[in-house]
Amino acid sequence: MASKPRFTKQGTTPTPDPEGAPPPEGTLHPVDEKLPPLKMATTGLQHVAAMYAGVVAPPLIVGAAVGLSAKELTFLTGACLFTAGLATFLQTLGIWKIGARLPFVNGVTFAGVAPMLAVVDSTKDKDDALPIIFGAVIVAGLLGFIAAPFFSKMVRFFPPVVTGTVITLIGISLMPVAFGWMQGPNPAAGDYGSTKYLSLAGATLVIVLLLRRFTRGFVKQIAVLLGLVIGTLVAIPFDVTDFGPVADADVVGFPTPFHFGAPQFAAAAIVSLCVVMVVSMTESTADMLALGEIVDRPADEKTIAAGLRADTLGSAVSPLFNGFMCSAFAQNIGLVAMTKIRSRYVVATGGGFLVLMGLCPMAASLIAVVPRPVLGGAGVVLFGSVAASGIQTLVKAGLEKDNNVLIVAVSLAVGLIPISAPEFYHAFPETAKIILDSGISTGCVAAVVLNLLFNHTGRGGEADEVTAPMEPGGEISETRVPKQAAAH
Predict the structure, then answer these.
(1) Which has the closest alpha carbon to 322: 138, 170, 174?
(2) E-assigned strands of 7-70?
């Protein structure tokens, strides 16, 4: 039997326990260790670097859609950094029954971007768009907080076939945003989509790919961030880089509560963001289960409920400081697995850096300097990685069962309608279009309903297996694996 490391006192190195005996009293689990200050700071910064691009992308996307000025976009980005830090504190340090107390980084979830863009598109006065979004996030967060202990018991209704489909849709739904960025900052300009902009986007994409291919460790982890920096420097001679936002930004600032107006509560937006909250809670549950195994502290029902409370409370509080819905960042789980540093206090230190960055508008303004084509080139990797993550989940979803093939096929088709046929729902009421125009929301609902129909009712749980891949346009094979054989 493989031996497990003996948990040690704070600041010491674990020693093997050949007997595999329980750790003696007074010893500390690696998750609860506090490392030396310098190591705590550097490893905490590494977590920030790994997730920074993911945190700033949603406010950039939504802020640009609303039509915010560079200064307001900087404010919104700083607010999201600040609230991500607060949510990370809740998750890692915890209070009462809130927080998984695992090395979990929280930040703005990508799942909410497409529904928020649908809200922006359907709002006549763009000044009302952010208040409507903030109101919907508050309600979704509070409802999620109440539902957390019950949701932790309902994980079986969100298997990989559902979560994988939704995560894939998140990535695919965001790709048009990256393609729009690649063409330039202003769709109405004569040079929109010009060779100059597309070349900058392509160069940035190549830089990110080369960094991912030929570097290791920390540099590889921050390849997207480095790609943005190098791409911006390359863009300077082309006169498409504006350093005005940095010059105009204050060194110290605070995300004033309700800066964009008091929250407004629109039913359609609330329903749409509640669906996103369900998706977010599902992703967080899966992440907690994975992280629990990595750090040798398996996440039980109590831990999952506490972690979901932190996610949802962080989301409910975030709009007070002009931030969006928060969720766990899966890329940081990979960082924990790679570095073998399991201390939750390291991640809490990273949360502290996020708060400090949110309180320094000049630091937050740096992302506003990055030209749109450069963002687009990096966005292809960033958003494509989200879709690839969903495909990885689908690989584990049991697609040898034709029921699951149908669930994925139909759910993806429903979720892709707003992308492939943007005017498909043009005859529907505006309130309904807020939900229907979000492929993530509709795809998620379709996946859950179809999973219940095929795998939780009647004989759906005994789905036959597909014995060979389907040819394009072909029908599902009627040749089945005998149930006795399939059971082995």
Answers:
(1) 138
(2) 15-17
CB 281 within 8 A of CB 144: yes
Chunked into runs of 10 residues, the chain (488 residues) has average pLDDT values of: 43 42 61 82 75 79 86 86 91 88 85 84 86 94 92 76 82 82 83 90 93 81 79 88 73 84 90 85 75 77 89 92 85 66 87 88 72 85 78 82 89 90 82 72 84 76 46 43 38
β-bridge partners, 436: none
Sign of CA dihedral 19, 22, 24, 28: positive
pTM of the complete model: 0.66
Query: Which phi and psi angles does 74 have, rounded to 5°?
Result: -65, -45
> How many CB atoms lie under 10 A from the CB of residue 125?
7
Residue type at 185 in one-letter notation: P
Alpha carbon distances (Å) from 469 to 310, 407, 409, 417, 477: 42, 16, 14, 25, 9
Residues 6+ apart with CB under 8 A from 471: none
Report which of 368, 362, 438, 54 is spatially closest to residue 185, judged by C-alpha positions. 368
Q: Please choose, from the candidates 278, 369, 391, the residue with its C-alpha nearest in 3D space to the C-alpha of residue 325.
A: 278
Q: Which amino acid is at 4?
A: K
Q: What is the 3-state secondary structure (H, E, C) of 347-382?
A: HHHHHHHHHHHHCCHHHHHHHHHCCHHHHHHHHHHH
Q: Could you tell me how many residues make up the chain?
A: 488
